[in-house]
């Protein structure tokens, strides 16, 4: 668990990174305000007092307007990851957050400085209300900025999910057509094995349909490995003893979210272009490991290997590696990476690296 998750464990997991980013922005602006007040009126605003007032007021308003808003998400009727919804309830909450946050921060600043800011209300009402209205205006600016940024991130997320869904609809028919072509050959040459393959295909399609009905843009790594196992069992019917395979998935990585059908195109390529050309076939191993804050997945085969030019594009201009590269680039921030290591005649290893996203 990261320090951020430890400090913000009382908030929903999907909101913590956004809350932390907004806190950094608020505190950065608070520092700027304190330095500006001290620099423009050094005799009236000591640096330490300016810092205490600025940070106390900004932090108080932020705590009430941001984390508290997320905790009250049911009352506001909002959902993650940004929990923003324009409504009279939101407007009322923000207004009260500014008023109460300003009052609370001022109390902290007054306690530190040893004098009362509220005396300004009697001594110089115009100055007091000007300062209060400027605080309200800055707070409103923060709210508008964070709302527009959250809306922009939502639109980006929706576009990414639509792109991944399109790629997934391309992958499913590709696998199905290849399997049906193999099934047609087996029907003519080995009917009993064709029946076995048809049964496996039925199981695979049932699991795929069940997963698509619960589709949310990602599923767990355990689900991905389970679907990959169904596919390899299907291929094992056709190839018999020429195909061996193994998986390694630590328990701590099983709930990690990944895009559906991320690994299958690579395994499909390994069979078609790596193992099938070898008379004796070969073995495929899929291993997931954690390295610091990174998830590493290796797909290794003992096939015929790849030429250097194919490693930069795809096996013989095929479908799998290029699609996986595009899917990895479609992850938020384009944070996934694909590495290919191969020698002709000695097999291929394809390594996927993704940022770790395990939530407690």
Automatic annotation (TrEMBL):
Residues 262-358 form the Histidine kinase domain. GO terms for molecular function: protein histidine kinase activity. SUPFAM superfamilies: ATPase domain of HSP90 chaperone/DNA topoisomerase II/histidine kinase (SSF55874). SMART domains: HATPase_c. It catalyses: ATP + protein L-histidine = ADP + protein N-phospho-L-histidine. The chain crosses the membrane at residues 20-40, 52-71, 91-109, 129-148. InterPro entries: Bact_2-comp_sensor_kinase, HATPase_C_sf, HATPase_dom, His_kinase_dom, Sig_transdc_His_kin-like_C, Sig_transdc_His_kin_internal. Keywords: Kinase, Membrane, Transferase, Transmembrane, Transmembrane helix. It comes from the Bacteria. The keyword Transmembrane applies. Its EC number is 2.7.13.3. This is histidine kinase.
């Amino acid at each position: 668990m990261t320090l951020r998750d430890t400090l913000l464990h009382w908030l929903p997991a999907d909101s913590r990174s956004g809350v932390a980013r907004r806190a950094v922005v608020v505190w950065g602006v608070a520092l700027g305000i304190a330095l500006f007040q001290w620099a423009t009126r050094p005799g009236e605003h000591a640096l330490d007092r300016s810092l205490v007032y600025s940070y106390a007021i900004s932090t108080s308003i932020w705590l009430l307007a941001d984390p508290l808003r997320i905790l009250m998400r049911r009352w506001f009727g909002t959902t993650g990851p940004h929990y923003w919804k324009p409504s009279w309830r939101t407007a009322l909450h923000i207004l009260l957050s500014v008023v109460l946050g300003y009052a609370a921060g001022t109390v902290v600043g007054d306690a530190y400085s040893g004098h009362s800011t509220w005396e300004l209300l009697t001594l110089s009402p115009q100055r007091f209300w000007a300062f209060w209205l400027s605080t309200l205006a800055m707070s409103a600016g923060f709210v508008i900025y964070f709302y527009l940024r959250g809306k922009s991130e939502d639109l980006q997320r929706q576009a990414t999910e639509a792109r991944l869904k399109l790629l997934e609809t391309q992958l499913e028919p590709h696998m199905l057509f290849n399997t049906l072509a193999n099934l047609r050959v087996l029907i003519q040459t080995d009917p009993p094995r064709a029946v076995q393959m048809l049964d496996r295909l039925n199981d695979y399609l049932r699991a795929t349909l069940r997963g698509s009905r619960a589709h949310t843009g990602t599923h767990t790594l355990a689900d991905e490995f389970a679907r990959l196992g169904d596919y390899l069992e299907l291929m094992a019917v056709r190839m018999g003893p020429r195909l061996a395979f193994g998986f390694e998935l630590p328990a701590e990585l099983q709930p990690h979210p990944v895009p559906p059908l991320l690994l299958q195109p690579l395994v499909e390529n390994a069979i078609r272009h790596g193992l099938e050309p070898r008379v004796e076939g070969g073995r495929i191993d899929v291993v997931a490991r954690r390295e610091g804050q990174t998830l590493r997945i290796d797909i290794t085969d003992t096939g015929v290997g790849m030429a250097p030019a194919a490693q930069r594009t795809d096996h013989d201009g095929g479908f799998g590696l290029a699609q996986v590269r595009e899917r990895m680039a479609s992850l938020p921030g384009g944070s996934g990476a694909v590495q290919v290591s191969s020698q002709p005649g000695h097999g291929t290893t394809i390594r996927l690296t993704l940022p770790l996203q395990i939530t407690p």
